[in-house]
Amino acid sequence: TSASKASAASITAKPITIKAKDQTITYGSSITQGVGQVTISSGALASGDTLTGITLDQSTTNYTTNGTITPSAATINDGSSNNMTTNYSITYSTGVLKINKANLTPSIGTCNNKVYDGTTSASCTINLATPKSGDVVSASGTCVFADKNVGNAKTVTCTNITLSGTNAGNY
């Protein structure tokens, strides 16, 4: 025999906390997405349930040592691919994002000819290879001829190269 009766008993959502894993990337790269980039740091999924989707957002795309990765929009399915997400009360916890500066390779562009003045000083443009598209960054430095004497096709060296511009801090 069996009996059933309407009762005031309830099933409440199971609390869990989903935490983003810390990530370190290089400026110009994106964080790694996917359920492998989070952990369930508090609570646990019910037997047979699996985290099948998550959104991860990074707080910045610029150089940083203390950015954040924020998880959201988790999807939890059971073994039959039924969405079980509403059976959980989900709290999200951020991970740490570190974005390393990207390398830029400088090269000497055009150097201006000059009239002999007894010095080795040279005036040159310094080009930068592979800055991220749209970035505002330029280079300057101290450029000198190999010697101060008159001559053609003289070697020029640039040192103490510094970056400037809105995005210089990312390199």
Q: What attributes does this structure have?
A:
171 residues; mainly beta; four-stranded mixed sheet; rod-shaped
- Main pleated sheet: 4 strands, mixed
Return the string of H and E elements. EEEEEEEEEEEE
Regions with little confidence, pLDDT below 50 for 5+ residues: none
The number of distinct β-strands equals 12
Kindly state the percentage of residues in helix. under 10%
Radius of gyration: 29 Å
Instruction: Please give the order of strands in the largest beta sheet.
Output: 2-7-5-4
Structure overview:
By secondary structure, the protein is an all-beta fold. 0% of the residues lie in helices and 49% in strands. A hairpin with a 5-residue loop joins strand 4 (50-58) and strand 5.
A few lines on this structure:
The chain has 171 residues and is mostly beta strands. It has no helices and 12 strands.
Helix and strand arrangement:
Blueprint: E1 14-20, E2 23-26, E3 38-42, E4 50-58, E5 64-77, E6 88-93, E7 95-100, E8 105-111, E9 121-122, E10 124-129, E11 138-145, E12 156-164
Parallel strand pairs: 1-6, 2-7
Antiparallel strand pairs: 1-3, 4-5, 5-7, 8-10, 9-11, 11-12
